Amino acid sequence: MSDSASSAAGAAGYSGGAQGAGSASGDALIRTAGWREAPIQTSLSDVFRTIPVRTTGAPWKRFLSFLGPGYLVAVGYMDPGNWATAIAGGSKFGYTLLFVALVSNIMAIILQALCARLAVASGRDLAQACRDGYPAWAAYPLWFLAEAAIIATDIAEVIGTAIGLNLLFGMPLEIGVILTALDVFLILMLQRLGFRYLEAFVVALLAVIAVCFGLQIALADPHWGEVIRGFAPTTDIISNPDMLYLALGILGATVMPHNLYLHSAIVQTRAFGSELPQKREALKFATIDSTIALMLALLINGSILILAAAAFYKTGNTEVAELGQAHALLSPLLGSAFAPTLFGIALLACGLNSTVTATLAGQVVMEGFIKMRVSPWVRRLITRAIAIIPAAGVTIFYGESQTAKLLILTQVVLSLQLPFAIIPLVQFTASRAKMGELVAPRWLTAIAAIIALVIVVLNVKLITDFVAG
Q: Does the domain formed by 44-468 have CATH 2.60.40.2890?
């Protein structure tokens, strides 16, 4: 930014300058002592520290400059794979798994707050932190695991979008799966308009989803006393293998590994400056942004499960798992022809939204772990091509009846990959050498470590149950 441009931004109460911002190579000078490399090359360098932030005025006005990244992250917590697990859980076990949705969301809030802390304090996203903080050879298996998680996410998006097109327009699933490859043009258009337009698109679709589910909940008229009791813990979640499988699916669909990489990168789209007071304020506002967004995600996730419990479980339809089956049953059970349309609109919006964030996350892990930079449309086509193969195969050879099983399986795959993202995140943010004055408080590190331990233990139990069975 030129001196005159900087002066104009300062006069308007905005800061557009930051460490490394505006450089052609996207390099950021990192002065934190504990990392192996300095300078580093930033992921998503085209938007690194490009969005100015307000430095004067009321706190809420300054906060608005940071509003956005949390909602891109929240998208991953309500993708079509989440729908499958929530619908299966609600129809089979009623409101019981609402407790799992709540606990998963609390875990997500804590972990995403650590992602923001890592980004603001070190100037690194989680993929870069792993590359610089571990031996060089470790970057490749960690990158492979991250890519596997993103592909699993993309499989869910392919199936969800295809089903949404089928429900709304009668398009055959096989054609819908193939057409999902064309969403790369949507990503390109939004990225060329600017990152704030990308965020606005996501927020608008989230509002559509929230309205659709609000109307469906009103039509379903759930028993609110049972809903409240569903947020209380029960030992059945651990002792019942079927319930544990769905609970882990909800966990995998809620705390998603690619979101940890994504959030730690897109927080750095704001030009918040390099001084400690500026970083403290950026961390505060970024944490508030993600917390509010994830509470919206809990509202929507809970609504899906409540809708399934109220519409299916209480009517004896306890084996509803396919999204198309749920759509077909809504009209006769709720007594409104409008309910299935709302369901289809929300599903299609979820699929489109998840497409945006999966593409960005793919760029982050590829550039962050192995420094491979490709055009967004190439990156998108590679990921989508890999995801289309299993989605199309299941759809063509087994039909819609098996898509729900594939959706739930993708969420369990995500849950199994979580420790490989969470443990490095907790480790790095607990290191004063790497984080400086913004090192995570010990109480926060302890809670995050417990979260990581719980996830690992649950995964081990899941694997043991399946091997024994």
A: no
